[in-house]
């Protein structure tokens, strides 16, 4: 089987040369583009590095490698990646197109929160897909959380959201996570539905986070595909799934730069524990590792 491409391994060859030259910059640009940073972010990073190299009058590739790590960390650190979950109950809406792993992500996020001994209820407000309700119930059970299901087929999603927040308040549950439908082919109706869910929920409790789930393997298309959510859903944070597959890590920075919305959670695998918070230093280390 062919070895999977790695930014860290690619860069290793660049930084063993005796000096920084034009070829170094060309190779670095190609490596960042290949890693899915996108042309705009790549240009910003290269410009930053060229200014630093000139300022410190260095020709040592090892200095360039250290500067690259520091520059990437600086770019990531511009965004506040903290999850805002201090309200009680803290209400989290999870949005995203169908197929990005939204329901699975809710299961993993629930397990993540349970690991910090937070009590959680999930609300199955994607009432148009019976399979989504059953899948969510399975994940909730595995994660040790309560679930509020639709009481009848095709129930109004906003009423399920209402019942979920009400359940959290009645039972003293700290965090309520609400799944929503992801149909983009009826964009207008979908956005109206999300707006209604927000209105209904906010009559009971403030919404702490609106997390948009994006599939990292779709690259730049992931942002384009989700523009409707970014415009209309009041998104406060991004969750990137499937970063363990063919996705290139540069997509994370590209998404943050293009949307102005921080990545707050990363899905790195298929297991229930394969979801982590986003830490710039740790992520850049992983990105530049020679794996």
Q: Describe it for me?
A:
This protein is α/β, with parallel strands linked by helices and 291 residues long. The chain folds into two domains: 71 residues, Four Helix Bundle (Hemerythrin (Met), subunit A) (Up-down Bundle), CATH 1.20.120.140; 199 residues, Rossmann fold (3-Layer(aba) Sandwich). It is 49% helix and 14% strand. It contains twelve helices and eight strands. The chain has an eight-stranded mixed beta sheet with strand order 3-2-4-1-5-6-7-8, with helices on both faces. Helix 11 links the parallel strand 6 and strand 7. Helix 1 packs antiparallel against helix 2, helix 4 packs antiparallel against helix 12 and helix 5 runs parallel beside helix 6. The two termini are 15 Å apart. The model has no long low-confidence stretch (mean pLDDT 84).
By CATH, the superfamily of the largest domain comes out as P-loop containing nucleotide triphosphate hydrolases
Low-confidence stretches: none
Q: What is the C-alpha radius of gyration, as a whole number of Å?
A: 21 Å
Largest sheet: 8 strands, mixed
What percent of the residues sit in helical stretches (DSSP H or I)? 40-55%
What is the strand arrangement across the widest sheet? 3-2-4-1-5-6-7-8
Number of domains: 2
The helix-and-strand class reads alpha/beta
List the secondary-structure elements in sequence, H or E: HHHHEHEHEHEHEHHEHEEH
Quote the average pLDDT: 84
The CATH class assignment of the largest domain is Alpha Beta
Number of contiguous helices: 12
Q: Overall 3D geometry?
A: elongated
What is the CATH architecture annotation of the largest domain?
A: 3-Layer(aba) Sandwich
């Amino acid at each position: 089987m062919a070895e999977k491409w790695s930014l860290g391994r690619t860069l290793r060859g660049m930084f063993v040369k005796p000096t920084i030259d034009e070829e170094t910059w060309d190779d670095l640009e190609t490596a960042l583009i290949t890693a899915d940073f996108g042309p705009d972010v790549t240009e910003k990073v290269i410009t930053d590095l060229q200014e630093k190299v000139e300022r410190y009058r260095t020709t040592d590739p090892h200095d360039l490698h250290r500067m690259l790590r520091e520059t990437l960390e600086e770019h990531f650190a511009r965004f506040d990646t903290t999850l805002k979950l201090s309200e009680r109950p803290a209400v989290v809406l999870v949005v995203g197109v169908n197929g990005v792993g939204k329901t699975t992500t809710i299961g993993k996020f629930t397990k993540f929160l349970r690991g910090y001994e937070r009590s959680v209820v999930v609300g199955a407000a994607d009432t148009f897909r019976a399979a989504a309700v059953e899948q969510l119930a399975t994940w909730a059970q595995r994660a040790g959380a309560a679930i509020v299901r639709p009481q009848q087929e095709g129930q109004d999603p906003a009423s399920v959201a209402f019942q979920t927040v009400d359940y959290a308040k009645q039972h003293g549950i700290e965090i309520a996570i609400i799944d929503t439908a992801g149909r983009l082919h009826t964009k207008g109706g979908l956005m109206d539905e999300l707006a209604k869910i927000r209105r209904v929920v906010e009559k009971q409790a403030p919404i702490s986070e609106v997390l948009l789930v994006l599939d990292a393997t779709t690259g730049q298309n992931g942002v384009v595909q989700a523009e409707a959510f970014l415009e209309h859903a009041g998104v406060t944070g991004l969750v990137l799934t499937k970063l363990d597959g063919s996705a290139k890590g540069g997509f994370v920075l590209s998404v943050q730069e293009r949307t102005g919305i921080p990545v707050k959670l990363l899905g790195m695998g298929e297991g229930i524990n394969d979801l982590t918070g986003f830490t710039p230093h740790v992520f850049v280390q992983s990105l530049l590792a020679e794996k």
